[in-house]
Specification:
Layout lengths: L1 E4 L7 E3 L19 E2 L1 H9 L4 E5 L14 H24 L5 H18 L18 H24 L1 E2 L5 E2 L3 H13 L10 H4 L7 H7 L2 H8 L7 H9 L20 H16 L10 H10 L7 H7 L11 E3 L5 E6 L9 E5 L5 E9 L2 E6 L15
Helix pairs in contact: 2-3, 2-4, 3-4, 3-5, 4-5, 4-10, 5-9, 8-9, 9-10, 10-11
Length: about 375
């Protein structure tokens, strides 16, 4: 299967994966196996769906891994929705979040961890297929998924440093659950911001920007310190701090920012760039990857960005690539150590399927690279 933009759909294409509804608990917009048409593609675009998975001979045999099974994704979105609803009540009567809500979030974080345990990191496609109307909930789940992938990778390779300065490799489940909970509710403070400001398509006024910058501390103040880990709270409070100290709300910098909050900052920005928003379409994965890479050492911790580069691929497996002459190719393999040279399958001028490692920069094929075991006899066709 392969991922294509809805504006590239042709009649008689077969849908390979369900298209989820933006409404929590609702049936999918379309079920896998449906025959697609250009007219249906236009209808999907009007609903905010930008890309779908299709089955055809070009994508035959490609099975991109999904970070989360659909039932885990949906149950987690419901947990986040319930938490936000309760938080609005908390903000109104100054009581604490109910223990049942916190328990549901903890279970949701544990479910994500379990789903990711055996997941191959670098082949994941994080592209969201749902309407932008579900951004609030799906953003939290995607940030948690990417953040936990990063956290688990770092914990496995580097461990963590305790208050005595000693490197340890224990307490994995406990620590990753705390990370997951913080990622799921990192934006809980936005319930205090009017929707007209959050979803404003135009540039924010200085006053509106000052209001936006209050949401991390507002979110942290909603979490009862006697029942929520300080590590979870620090993610909510500090995920907009920057490595260079130019972030908000407190202007912390470097290692003054907890490691978990630094992970959250990377995951949050990547998803904010690549996901559809109510006021703007998402950018392709390579744009999101480049934004994070370019922020290393200023906006983000360089060490965390190095791990990110081996988890989030600019051209993930199943992603459709436009070749220089207008033909389409699909990514069939990618090396995390050399991610700008994915192996792409395409039809040569004779109509035969060919696989070749290509150098892709900014979404455009620059050169072809011959590699052992791939067909190169018609590589010159690309330039024809």
């Amino acid at each position: 299967m392969r991922l294509v933009r809805v504006n590239s759909l042709r009649d008689d294409m077969e849908l390979a994966r369900d298209i989820p509804s933006p409404v929590l608990g609702a049936q999918p917009l379309l079920r896998r196996g449906v025959t697609l048409t250009q007219a249906l593609g236009a209808r999907l675009a009007s609903l905010g769906v930008r890309a779908v998975w299709i089955e055809d001979d070009l994508g035959d045999g490609i099975v991109p891994a999904q970070p989360l099974p659909e039932h885990i994704r949906r149950s987690t979105e419901r947990a986040v929705s319930r938490c936000l609803d309760q938080a609005r009540s908390v903000a109104a009567d100054l009581t604490s979040l109910p223990a049942t809500v916190l328990g549901t979030l903890e279970q949701a974080a544990a479910d994500i961890m379990a789903a990711l345990a055996e997941c191959p990191e670098a082949v994941l496609a994080f592209d969201d297929l749902a309407s932008a109307d579900s951004y609030t909930y799906s953003h939290s789940v995607r940030v948690a998924t990417l953040g936990l992938l990063l956290g688990q990778r770092i914990d496995r390779i580097e461990g963590w440093v305790d208050w005595r300065g000693e490197r340890r490799f224990d307490r994995k489940v406990e620590r990753m659950t705390q990370l997951g909970m913080g990622l799921l509710i990192h934006d809980i403070g936005k319930i205090s911001i009017p929707g007209s400001v959050l979803n404003k398509p135009d540039k924010l006024t200085p006053e509106e920007w000052d209001l936006i910058k209050t949401h991390p501390q507002a979110g942290a103040s909603l979490l009862p310190a006697d029942r929520v880990s300080p590590l979870t709270i620090c993610i909510v409070r500090d995920h907009h701090e920057r490595w260079d100290g130019l972030g908000y709300a407190r202007g912390r910098k470097g290692e003054e920012i907890h490691h978990f909050a630094r992970i959250a900052a990377v995951a949050d920005v990547y998803d904010a760039v690549t996901a559809d928003r109510p006021y703007k379409p998402g950018r392709p994965p390579h744009i999101g990857v480049n934004v994070v890479r370019q922020g290393a050492g200023t906006q983000f911790d360089t060490a965390i960005v190095e791990h990110f580069k081996r988890v989030a691929m600019p051209y993930p497996v199943g992603y459709t690539i436009a070749l220089p002459d207008g033909r389409s190719g699909v990514v069939v393999g990618v090396d995390p150590e050399d991610s700008e040279y994915p192996v792409v399958r395409y039809r040569n001028l004779s109509g035969e399927l060919t696989e070749l490692a290509m150098h892709i920069v900014g979404g455009k094929v620059v050169t072809e690279l011959e590699t052992p075991g791939v067909l190169t006899d018609s590589a010159s066709d690309l330039a024809a």
